[in-house]
Amino acid sequence: MDQLKELGSTLTGIESVLDLDAMRREITGLREESADPDLWNDQDRAQGVTRRLSYLESEMNRVEGLQGRLSDVETLFEMAEEMDDAATRDEALGELESLTKDIQQLEVRTLMSGEYDVREALVTINSQAGGVDAADFAQQLQRMYLRWAERHGYPTEIYDTSYAEEAGIKSTTFAVKTPYAYGTLRGEHGTHRLVRISPFDNQGRRQTSFAGVDVVPVVEQSDHVDIDESDLRIDVYRSSGPGGQGVNTTDSAVRITHIPTGIVVSCQNERSQLQNKASAMTVLQAKLLERKRQEEAAKMSDLRGEGTTSWGTQIRSYVVHPYQMVKDLRTNHEEGNPQAVLDGGLDGFIEAEIRWLRKIEAEEPA
Length: 366
Hints:
By secondary structure, this protein is α+β, with helices and mostly antiparallel strands. Helix content is 49%, strand content 20%. The longest helix is centred in the first third of the chain and has 41 residues, at 43-83.
């Protein structure tokens, strides 16, 4: 059957890109490292080792599982042919459809070859135009990404959330702590638009509101991000929850302002002021690294006499009224159930983004 042969060829290509032999060697090394009783003397390193090991084992199991399913569906088709059994043929066709979808999803992962794609991601969401509806929309987007990560078993950590007075949030920053989180989510960067009947309007009028999503890669030790302490203004304050309700009795929350760029980051998720400062510095380093990267890309475009590729503007519309539709304005991928998308059903949009980004980057001159 041609479709089975094509799937087998696609899976072989994926295995080649992933380099399963190298993956097995790394898994063996990480298992030995994780068995060392002294590993947990360094908590950060230990968590990094266990997280990387869990990811690689999951990837290996995923590939081997697809190999097994491909073999099983081939057997099902052979049985259906031999017995001329319609029920077995229907079962084989159903499994083939499911297997095709899962192999295509794994194939998308092999398209992530950017310099920082393998990194974990820092996501910042800010409410924009639209008043209380925009703040409510920003909180819905935060929930959407956290639910999406939860569905996939990706750990997350919220560093800071600034709550709006009436409802929703002004801003939030959180990390998605899994390899390739940045490569997966970087297409989400831009302005998101919501159209609905406002639940905050007594006259039940339609409201359009906006929220901005910023996605940057987490910095690593190999990155060179020089920060002069004299360029920083560090403020400490008391952590607070929705409506200004105190959640901490000490001034443990930290806000860092990088004076030369005006970048402001905050962290209030830890009880310790030192821990919050360290987390805030991690976020600041990531934002400065991304700023440096964008400046270098703009400089190269100027040298080539080109305009920079601008895809970080309005990227997606979520329309709840007068009709139900979520549409990506770059890829034209659309789905008719906004609530399902806002509940974390983002995979279709993310897959389309990754393919679209790979296409436009392949078309850019080297």
